[in-house]
Amino acid sequence: MKALIAMSGGVDSSITALLLKNQGYDCIGVTMKLHFEGLSSDITNNKCGSESDVEDAMAVCNKLNIPHEVRDFSSSFKCCVMDRFVDTYRKGGTPNPCIDCNKHLKFKALSEYASQIGAEILATGHYARTRYNEATGRWELLKASDGNKDQSYVLYNLTQEQLKMIRFPLGELTKPEVRELADRYGFINAGKKDSQDICFVPDKDYAGFVDNYDGIKSEPGNFVATDGRILGTHKGIIHYTIGQRKGLGIAAGSPLFVTAIDPERNEVILSHGNGLFKKKIWINDINLISYDEIDKPLKAAVKIRYKHTEQPANIIQTAPDTIEIVFDEPQRAPTIGQAAVIYDGDTVIGGGTIFKVE
């Protein structure tokens, strides 16, 4: 069988290629060029598919004696990831561009290309697992065996069609085991550091990126207390996110936190710590893996951030694209724009984007 390997130039995708080659697949490595060059010089720092990454991926492919190619997906990346990132910040939310990239680029675009070239398998270096459930007749997405590296949270948008062809060879491995394999086989990137930043904002200045994206600057407005009192002036809502305490510039007897953002009034609402805890959220843009729909109230666990430990909650699907989630206990700083992912043990039921918090 022919397998397309998504090759980022990192150690994880390199070992993915090694494992599938050793399993007898006819492999081809593909590196996605995502660096969009049509933006202002101030923000062309997107290094996704950079020259050095391409060189590392090519060196590994040469060592494995498999073909390698670069495919330009930069226009789709700008539209589906960067534009959405900027739009969400300007609407007072906090986006998760890695989820959008997985949904629109790494799996949708690459799986379509895999089909074009006759590849039955698409493999990536994500830490997650899949399996076919004979009882339900559905493919399932599961957490990785290594809980420290599990990436199932950012993969909840996978469809049945995609899960059928996807392979995650690292799902049963730990990161040290992956690096040991890369070192044993003499891969050039065996010691390469994992990327920690959003690839198109490597300096972590998200607000600066948004302000310089298309010349539309964020306007200053008021910091407001929950009782309506004006506490000061903020620099623009794109500079703040729910739960933020530092950088507010507001003197108070006890710490103040950002507890809400009102884009229509251009206000950032501040309160003391208790105001951060919310019990009910709503998600839309949902994707369900374990079911076609949730036709009756469901008890499950929900994760509201990548590093959040999932918490017990009641799940009610109130419309085809809306789910209401009520936690057993209030959760700290659920944030509009972030994903809420629903779990049954290690199995991902599905998830969606938080659009309302109460």
The percentage helix is 10-25%
Over the alpha carbons, how many angstroms does the gyration radius reach? 22 Å
Q: Number of helix segments?
A: 7
Total strands: the figure is: 17
Shape: globular
Q: On the 0-100 scale, what is the average pLDDT?
A: 93
CATH names the topology of the largest domain as Rossmann fold
Question: What spatial order of strands do you see in the largest sheet?
Answer: 12-15-14-13-16-17
CATH architecture of the largest domain: 3-Layer(aba) Sandwich
What count of domains describes the coordinates?
Answer: 3
Order of helices and strands: EHEHEHHEEEHEHHEEEEEEEEEE
What's the story with the biggest beta sheet?
Answer: 6 strands, antiparallel, barrel
**Structural class of the helix and strand makeup?**
alpha/beta
